[in-house]
């Protein structure tokens, strides 16, 4: 059975997307819609914005992200997500290993073709 | 009809809540509430039905969100079954039958090796009692094993008492009691 591009992406996102969320939060706290919109620009990262929220809930449970309420100029207060120290360390670890990892994949793909 | 587009939102959130029925209740409430916020923040004051549909479409099917939550729960639950995690998970399931067997062995040993019988019965009995407290699932076999071991100890004690009773009638062995009585008189 030949896998679809979407099927392969779903597999690849599993270990990566959460670090993309953490990486985005390095620049400062953000609310859900903002994260979804920014990461949603990259079509390979998200197909459904809704999947961001179970992921955020998990990151919070894991202690990598924390939430706080902030007033918004329009409408009710918003839930902002920000990195904890542990979360920051997790992105660092991911970033350090990502380049050798993707180099490895590139090299193998180059060889195979 | 301002209420109509928003009823689409409510229907979507209800579906989502039902789809998340399998996950941790606090996480479920968290996900539903944050998606409600996402929708509120996306829609202006007077959204049209088309606006609402677009926002919901971008959020994606509720099943897909639920799947992400399930996958996350599985990932969070599985990675390290560290030894300190939970004593319950470490209590072996075979302990019930094995301890029951040891209890039977203890009873079988009483006539030939009563000391060994008591030792085996005590060890297996204590293990079975600890097991009753800790083991996951049914503990019927462990309770039976504990009872059997108690019976083994009791039988050995009875046998010993009987034997001693028999021996006290022999002059050479039944001394302790008889040594005391002359001293008292």
List keywords for this structure.
heterodimer; A: 113 residues; alpha+beta; Arc Repressor Mutant, subunit A; three-stranded antiparallel beta sheet; 3 strands; globular; B: 185 residues; mainly alpha; 0% strand
Structure description:
The complex is a heterodimer of chains A (113) and B (185). Chain A is of the alpha+beta class and 113 residues long. Chain A has helices spanning 5-25, 32-40, 52-61, 85-112; strands spanning 30-31, 65-70, 78-83. In chain A, strands 1-3-2 form a three-stranded antiparallel β-sheet. In chain A, helix 1 (5-25) runs antiparallel to helix 4 (85-112). In chain A, 26% of the residues are buried. The model of chain A has no long low-confidence stretch (mean pLDDT 93). With 185 residues, chain B is an all-alpha fold. Chain B folds into two domains: 3-77, no CATH class; 89-174. Chain B is built from nine helices and no strands. Chain B has helices at residues 3-19, 25-42, 49-59, 62-77, 87-90, 95-109, 114-134, 140-168, 175-184. In chain B, helix 1 runs antiparallel to helix 2 (25-42), helix 1 runs parallel beside helix 3 and helix 6 packs antiparallel against helix 7 (114-134). The A-B interface holds A 14, 31-33, 36, 40, 47-51, 53-58, 60-62, 72, 75-76, 78-79 and B 16, 27, 30-31, 34-35, 37-38, 40-42, 58-62, 64-65, 68-69, 71-72, 75-76.
What's the pLDDT, averaged over the residues of chain B?
Answer: 77
The count of DSSP E runs of length 2 or more, i.e. the number of strands of chain B, is: 0
Rg calc of chain A: 16 Å
Structural class label of chain A: alpha+beta
